[in-house]
Amino acid sequence: MASVPAFRAGDSAGELSGAWQQVRSLTERLAGPLSPEDQVVQTMPDVSPTKWHLAHTTWFFEHFVLQPNLADYPPFDERWHYLFNSYYYSVGQMHARNDRGLLSRPTVAQILAWRAHVDAAMQPLLERAEDDTELAFLIRLGLNHEQQHQELLLTDIKHVLWSNPLGPAYDEALPAPPAGPATPLSFIERAATEAPIGADANQGFCFDNETPRHRVALRAHALANRLVTNAEYRAFIDDGGYREPHWWLADGWGCVEAQRWQRPLYWSEDSTLEFTLRGWRPLVDEAPVSHVSFYEADAYARWAGARLPTEAEWEAAAADVPVSGNLLERGWLHPAPATQPGLSQLFGDTWEWTASPYMAYPGFKPLAGSLGEYNGKFMCNQLSVRGGSCLSSANHLRASYRSFFYPHQRWQMLGFRLAKDPD
Amino acid sequence: MASVPAFRAGDSAGELSGAWQQVRSLTERLAGPLSPEDQVVQTMPDVSPTKWHLAHTTWFFEHFVLQPNLADYPPFDERWHYLFNSYYYSVGQMHARNDRGLLSRPTVAQILAWRAHVDAAMQPLLERAEDDTELAFLIRLGLNHEQQHQELLLTDIKHVLWSNPLGPAYDEALPAPPAGPATPLSFIERAATEAPIGADANQGFCFDNETPRHRVALRAHALANRLVTNAEYRAFIDDGGYREPHWWLADGWGCVEAQRWQRPLYWSEDSTLEFTLRGWRPLVDEAPVSHVSFYEADAYARWAGARLPTEAEWEAAAADVPVSGNLLERGWLHPAPATQPGLSQLFGDTWEWTASPYMAYPGFKPLAGSLGEYNGKFMCNQLSVRGGSCLSSANHLRASYRSFFYPHQRWQMLGFRLAKDPD
Amino acid sequence: MASVPAFRAGDSAGELSGAWQQVRSLTERLAGPLSPEDQVVQTMPDVSPTKWHLAHTTWFFEHFVLQPNLADYPPFDERWHYLFNSYYYSVGQMHARNDRGLLSRPTVAQILAWRAHVDAAMQPLLERAEDDTELAFLIRLGLNHEQQHQELLLTDIKHVLWSNPLGPAYDEALPAPPAGPATPLSFIERAATEAPIGADANQGFCFDNETPRHRVALRAHALANRLVTNAEYRAFIDDGGYREPHWWLADGWGCVEAQRWQRPLYWSEDSTLEFTLRGWRPLVDEAPVSHVSFYEADAYARWAGARLPTEAEWEAAAADVPVSGNLLERGWLHPAPATQPGLSQLFGDTWEWTASPYMAYPGFKPLAGSLGEYNGKFMCNQLSVRGGSCLSSANHLRASYRSFFYPHQRWQMLGFRLAKDPD
Amino acid sequence: MASVPAFRAGDSAGELSGAWQQVRSLTERLAGPLSPEDQVVQTMPDVSPTKWHLAHTTWFFEHFVLQPNLADYPPFDERWHYLFNSYYYSVGQMHARNDRGLLSRPTVAQILAWRAHVDAAMQPLLERAEDDTELAFLIRLGLNHEQQHQELLLTDIKHVLWSNPLGPAYDEALPAPPAGPATPLSFIERAATEAPIGADANQGFCFDNETPRHRVALRAHALANRLVTNAEYRAFIDDGGYREPHWWLADGWGCVEAQRWQRPLYWSEDSTLEFTLRGWRPLVDEAPVSHVSFYEADAYARWAGARLPTEAEWEAAAADVPVSGNLLERGWLHPAPATQPGLSQLFGDTWEWTASPYMAYPGFKPLAGSLGEYNGKFMCNQLSVRGGSCLSSANHLRASYRSFFYPHQRWQMLGFRLAKDPD
């Protein structure tokens, strides 16, 4: 895991060409430690096989960039479009999401050949994008899309390997995050204010769901200085947290009972080990708890006499904080104890559940055409999560960046921070 | 269906006694047209049998009011508490919601005897409540709770009767709503403002989820003067609305495909008839469309180049409007065409889907104790609906009243109104 | 439960008229202790509501006897045919079996009126049948069909009442079966032989699945003198029988794990009580075990170093035994300890699982027309059971009588007897 | 697909050593055309991944032969036993059958290394078996077991490839079966007799379920000279066979409706193409219909005024017929038109559904110990099938050989032959 050169998707076209090379090759490097067999498996509907990610990100460029912009571009295999379209109905029908693991073909080697074919075909367009801001945006969008799938590739293969009783590691040679105590928990008070929230589409690349930028009134509140740790979360478990409906939302309790949840997803039954991309490892008390659902985060917060922050509270706090921390570039691929003073761990380590349903900002307009299906159609039943994780590239994140998951989902690198109202 | 004398739950204790008599007897009158057989059936998990409603509302008083406040009160049958607790985990375990239709006992006659037993036992408490505001609140809460179940009783039995190939009417003798044209559709512009939203708990009865009252910034927008009609909705169907994923949220399209939705719940396959509490009746073009899900309302709005209002927009518009219209007292038990000028149908006819996820207001505190389970634990995955319906009692509603349903639910009396942003 | 006069369905037409009155009125007497609410509920797909049995048996006569044979017979309500056809596809479509409990209408009173209407209309046909053997057969078939539903009515309502946490009795006033020790278990040796099996359709009424009569070679074997008792079965449980896959057929073990079976269907968790038509009662050690599946009977037999008898072995042993024992007429409605010397409990107490898949006898021809759907189309995946139960009418049974159930089914009055091969 | 030297498992130990080499290497040759990705996928619970077959057959030898018989044998990886035990509960717990496709590790290469390790370790045991008939039997059992999995490997990968919208071939270079007309259909009369059925365990290798040899009385009947063809089966479809419940067993009709069956498993929607191991190919009218369930075979037979043969009728007819025909050695891997006079296609082409439930022969004793789980515990809910298929090795079959499938299963190479009773 060599480091990834910084890339601002909103940067100049010269940098776009470099970014192309870096992002595309990183995807393949991330798949590098995996056998062809590893790249086929889908362990549940949320998970996609590694080779599906390799192919889908390539389909995105072939379909949305090459075919509309290169008159005589020969698609590598037209039949594959059906297989690797994810959810763009306006583009045509698609293979069922739940059946992605039933596809042994195309093989990994065939998909890598497709990637090379597309990489070669893109070269003239990368040049043309110097004078074509619309084309440049499309390519930037595709690269940011591919970066999202880089994180999914890692979280999905983690689930695949964990599902195997042999518990194989993604890469035994990954460096261990440093051990050591976490910064003590404290709450940082934040005065009432009216904060600007969201991104200005003219100020560098952003997704449509971050727009329009608008002002939000915030009440006085306090934010925890860091993420909740494994040790803190274990106290909730030890206090009977998973047996007491009082702490849970009704739908959350339904999940606890139906799924028989008793601890975070990747903890061993005795709560001493945790499955990581380095395989089963001793659970580090001081590291942030990860792979918990919104329901668990929300129940913990209630038990702790606190609540989750809203996404506006989070964004206002992160607005002037540089995007740095335990991110993909650091190469640990696992959360690590907080060591910085002040408000820390805003970026990296784990995505942070917020209390905010993921919905359109006032006046939101999705992208025109098929790409309008990218974000807007998911604005129901999900919660906003913020800040990226140890599996996110630094140049992919922003304070205004919104990702979103269903409240029961745990397979992503998801943790949380507490907030409090004034007494 | 004689009319129900007006009752403000926040009124004086003298009126509480009268309200008791009126609300309790109305529940029994609503069950009046039904045979014992009708009162047993549960056609899907969302539906409860009529006799379950008769019993559960009585359990509420026995458990939350009589047992804590009458030292020597003898419960009618302690074993029934397990059967008729709905979801109050802090009070004990309960019978599975999905299995309510498996219970032939207690019989309707036994449950009516229980109701009489509780009614008699409540008399001294109704007197004592004159000097005990906490007790008075509890009783008011129980009566409002029972009014909610009156509406559920009607919507649930409607589903039961509709599920029967014989299509029997709840009451053939119900008066038909008047026919005739609806007021033409127009949009009423509303300037940007900062509006007070929610209820002040010290100003008459309200539910905890309406508090605290707080100010919300609203952008300029326009609200439709009335609800969307059957004829308007049919144009969406005729335009292929149920075959075109473009109009739908992703989860909504999933529902359309899984449930094979092609029209509102109670329409006949040829879209000429509608199942009502008077049985199958010709569909009235000018009446509001009803029994549609949030997904359908949202898809229609997108198709129509509009959107759904937020709950704050709705409440700001309704704040000074008296609670009147096609409500339970009118006795039609079915939506009717809009006939009033200006902003109409805010109260009654159908509940209105809003674009707002049902969530806590800033600084929300649930009721103390077990009754804190009443509302707060549902603040996830549901949408706020507003305004009541033709099955709601007038004295049960307020502009700040929030009900809530999952986006896929259709068995309630649910319709919608359009909103628009300025161009 | 007054006793039922003897009725041989193959008797003369004069007796047919008496039989009509007796069978039809017995059905209504069996429903007598039940409230209308009791008669609506369906607790699982195998169970039908009481009022469905009252109606379906009446539909059988209206459809198969009255309409073809009485030119101007007015059906009571043609729409009900769709509701109460069970599985005769050649007659038309039918209401889904799983949804029988969703029907509140027609009410019990309406169905009883239908019964009276049909009873009256049948009078001329009962007379005409004196000279019309085909008509007489049809009526006899209908009466035997109704007798089958009498037993189902009792086993189905038992499941309904058991599913209710209140555990109400069908009839508290039923007499208790006598207590006391069971005859000691012994094995009666039976020499190799070639036995005639099945019924001769010209020798009194029989079902088509008992024909043709044919010879079967039987090897030497031994049959247990009586049914396996509760105490004997408990020893299997205490020996870990439900935790040891070794004793079970593969599909049986699948059931044990999926259904978490740990004991017979109606035993209390501590194995001290049993649910009966008189409600929860102490488990009687010496009485036959009942409400066990084929899988459980088969596993027990393997554990006991024995096997189940084949249906031919059973029939050869029962061929000359009079149909008497603990049958419906005795009025206990529950199995009782064996007290007779020799081969006992062949008829009554519980149906006996055999090792024989239910299949066509060599040369089998189903009844012509729609009634050919009565038996033949179930000749797959089921096992033959023999001998009737304490819920069967004596005049309904014969040594050649074959009933059949799926190997996982337990809600019927099902027990078993052991057999052994010579060492 | 080179031909496989003849191997009688009951032959002398010298031949055992040769058989070992031939059977084990054939398995690997059968997996030869497949990529690692192909070997991972499980498309439904009935299907196992190719690499699972490679591993499971090897586990069988490691667990049942090497560990008990080679004192210092080091298991290759003890943890793999949990993964590759199929259903031998007496040996320990096992990985869930439905989850076999979730295992990316061990990889194909690791499993092939395991196979080589076991092959090497077996050499001394193959020598020792010259003087140890019990050990020789165990090895023969393991080789016959592996031959069963060779057929499963092919039928499972066929399902995997068919499930892929790309429809890739297992091996495009396979020879096409010869085209041309089929022998005309005729019925060969067979007189009543008492036939010896089953195998004598002392006369060469057989499975326990073929014993004991016993006599069965057969009535006069007639057997079709060949298998039912695609053209004949299509006439049933064209006559509305899949829309008419009259022809079907009740459970079969349930399957037709639930699974929406309209044609054999691997036919294209327009009934012109068939998926084969050479990919999609024109359907050959004269070839035997294959990949039909028992329910379809039974319904077709009823429609055709015939029935399926019993397994005893089949075996009596096949008793003196040499095992030859369109078998694995021929290398077509697909059924071909009948060309021989007289009773043909008894062996090879497709397995033949019989009317006989798969059950124990009178006096059946399963193998002692864990291997008793091999066959006996499946003697419920399945039907006997006979004669092997174009995917079976000739030296694996016998007239007394019984395989068995559930009546709804279609993914195996299953067809059928008609039988008739005398008029």
Descriptive keywords:
homotetramer; alpha+beta; paralog of FGE (formylglycine-generating enzyme); 4-stranded mixed β-sheet; globular; disordered N terminus
The major β-sheet of chain A equals: 4 strands, mixed
How does the overall form of chain A come out from the CA principal axes? Answer: globular
Q: Name the CATH superfamily assignment of the largest domain in chain A.
A: paralog of FGE (formylglycine-generating enzyme)
Rg of chain A computed from alpha carbons, rounded to a whole number of angstroms? 21 Å
DSSP strand tally of chain A: 11
Tally of structural domains of chain A = 2
Q: Beta-strand percentage of chain A?
A: 5-15%
Unreliable stretches covering 5 or more consecutive residues of chain A: 1-10
The ordered H/E elements of chain A are HHHHHEEEEHHEEHHEEEEE
Derived from helix and strand composition plus strand pairing, the structural class of chain A reads alpha+beta
Separate helix tally of chain A? 9
Terminal CA distance of chain A: 47 Å
Q: Main interface pair?
A: C-D, 29 and 30 residues
Question: In a few lines, what is going on in this structure?
Answer:
Four copies of one chain form a homotetramer. By secondary structure, chain A is of the alpha+beta class.
Q: What does this 3D model show about the protein?
A:
The structure is a homotetramer. Helix content of chain A is about 30%, strand content about 10%. The first copy, chain A, is α+β, with helices and mostly antiparallel strands. Chain A has a four-stranded mixed sheet. In chain A, α2 packs antiparallel against α5. The longest helix of chain A is centred in the middle third of the chain and has 30 residues, at about 135-160. Chains in contact: A-B, A-D, B-C, C-D. At the C-D interface, α7 and α8 of C face α7 and α8 of D.
